[in-house]
Design goal:
The chain contains twelve helices and 15 strands. With 344 residues, it is of the alpha/beta class.
């Protein structure tokens, strides 16, 4: 197998802000894995939150000895850290699907009719701009709003006044336990479905304390990186957010999904701001989960790839062998001229 790596810069529709910072473009790492006349596509979107950077992930993969068997998943992937493993994992699964003539969802035993409806994320901005962003997608059935800024609940109240669909929120570690409990009382009145990562990661018992005082379900993100994190969260939260970049790709995501089910935790599949490659890979697993937040393609102004599609927010999986992602535009205009930071 021969691996080629390229850093991509994907322009965003709007500057994307969460409680940790702002980005105007998403930088991701494209992996092309050539074998037996086929090419598998993979992607990683390293995040500084987890100590990752594209340059470092690139170096790791360039030095990684790669064999000649895309089916040798454990041998090839086990030595790699999650962000690097993610890109190679997806590319190898793409090759396996192509070689066997089956789409990934079929190889994984999933029912494509059971895909969930994804949420559409609204990042932090001025109240006027956040309301304008909501108005632009007011027909979307599920909206997730980034919170964790002064006046965030007032903005959310204004949103609920004009939006009747399902509301979810993500504080991205932006609150204290005490403020979280107070804020969640307001969220309950606004009929918010769940709150994602209200406080900084690393304190499961504080999450338990919050959950015991909240009528709104609590879901982790930064606290649930991979399957090994989940036992400590059992009984402390209602659900977890699985992201392929955090856990190392499809195999890591499956481990999280099965572990979460065994522990009685609900599951959301999430994404970074990324191309259709990563989002489509996650979408193939979506029939196995309760919630989806796979809106990466909604947030980019231009995507060189196309894969998963949407019917009023419901994920529609490709039926072609492998990942089912194809290049729709030449990559030359998306290649990063210099190293850049991914969305925080």
């Amino acid at each position: 197998m021969r691996l080629t790596l390229t850093e991509l810069a994907l322009p965003l529709v709007h500057a994307f802000t969460i409680s940790r910072g702002t980005a105007t473009s998403a930088h991701t790492l494209l992996a092309r894995l050539a074998w037996n006349g086929r090419e598998g596509l993979g992607e990683s979107a390293p995040s500084a939150r987890y100590g990752d950077a594209i340059a470092a992930v690139t170096r790791v993969l360039e030095r990684h000895p790669i064999g000649d068997d895309p089916f040798a998943l454990e041998t090839e992937l086990a030595p790699l850290a999650p962000a690097a493993r993610c890109a190679l994992d997806i590319a190898m699964h793409d090759l396996i699907g192509q070689e066997t003539g089956r789409p990934l969802w079929q190889l994984l035993g999933c029912d494509p009719a059971r895909t969930p409806v994804t949420s559409f994320t609204i990042g932090i901005d001025t109240p006027e701009k956040m309301l304008a962003k909501l108005d632009a997608i007011v027909d979307h059935p599920i909206v997730k709003v980034k919170l964790g800024f002064p006046g965030d609940l007032e903005v959310l109240e204004a949103m609920r006044a004009r939006y009747t669909g399902t509301l979810r929120v993500d504080a991205n570690e932006g609150w204290t336990p005490e403020s979280a409990v107070a804020n969640l009382e307001t969220l309950a009145k606004l009929e918010v479905e769940f709150c994602e990562q209200p406080i900084p990661a690393g304190s499961p018992e504080r999450l338990r304390w919050i959950r015991e005082r909240s009528r709104v379900a609590i879901v982790t993100d930064e606290d649930s990186k991979d399957a090994s994190d989940l036992l400590a969260l059992a009984g402390c939260v209602d659900g977890i957010n699985v992201k392929l970049v955090k856990c190392g790709g499809l195999r890591g995501a499956l481990a999280m999904i099965h572990t979460a089910r065994a522990l009685g935790l609900k599951i959301m599949l999430g994404c970074m701001v990324e191309s259709a490659i990563l989002t489509t890979a996650a979408a193939h697993l979506s029939p196995l989960v309760d919630w989806a937040d796979l809106d990466g393609p909604f947030l980019t102004a231009d995507d060189p790839f196309v894969g998963v599609t949407y019917e009023h927010g419901k994920l529609v999986l490709p039926t072609t062998p492998g990942l089912g992602v194809v290049e729709r535009k030449p990559l030359a205009s998306f290649i990063a001229a210099r190293a850049g930071a991914n969305v925080p």
